[in-house]
Design brief:
The protein is mainly alpha-helical. It has one domain. Helix 4 packs across helix 5. The longest helix has about 35 residues. It is globular. The chain starts with 15 loop residues before the first helix and ends in a 14-residue tail after the last helix. About 25% of the residues are buried.
């Protein structure tokens, strides 16, 4: 007897699964990559880190503004809201690295409260994003039963 597939099962284009796994791996390595960017790139690395934080912040805000949390199960919706907060905190705590040129150099050597907070916020942001993306790769994409669309 042949097993029928659910209508809700998404079909991916050839190579789509590999691309999705590559994005998942990139997301999982986001924190160490941003730390390396700040360490070796100084202000440019701090700018790259700030751009990543603002990019995720804008994406999360757009998803929330578009009503995505209402279409998701409870845990993915909660993670989306938490990622929005972590992205905001990460962006705000990265700003001093851009405002003061020497701040990016000092951040590598010192572990003051603001720097520890920045590191924790960026790590949390990428951690939440990775978990959310992993959930989205599952067949139901974290959606509630009966939710249509992507």
């Amino acid at each position: 007897m042949e097993k029928s597939t659910s209508i809700r099962t998404r079909r991916r284009a050839p190579g789509g699964q590999a691309a999705a796994k590559a994005v998942l791996a990139l997301s999982a390595s986001g924190y160490p990559l941003t730390q390396a960017a700040i360490r070796y790139g100084g202000m440019w690395g701090a700018g790259l880190t700030e751009a990543a934080c603002l990019g995720l912040l804008a994406r999360d805000a757009a998803m929330i503004g578009g009503g995505t949390p209402h279409r998701l199960r409870a845990l993915p919706a909660l993670l989306l809201w938490a990622e929005l907060g972590a992205s905001l905190a990460a962006s705000v705590t990265c700003l001093p690295l851009l405002v003061q040129a020497r701040s990016a150099e000092r951040s590598v050597r010192s572990a003051g409260r603001l720097e520890a907070g920045r590191r924790a916020a960026v790590m949390t942001m990428f951690g939440l994003h990775t978990v959310r993306f992993w959930i989205y790769l599952r067949p139901d994409s974290g959606r509630r039963e009966g939710s249509a669309g992507h």
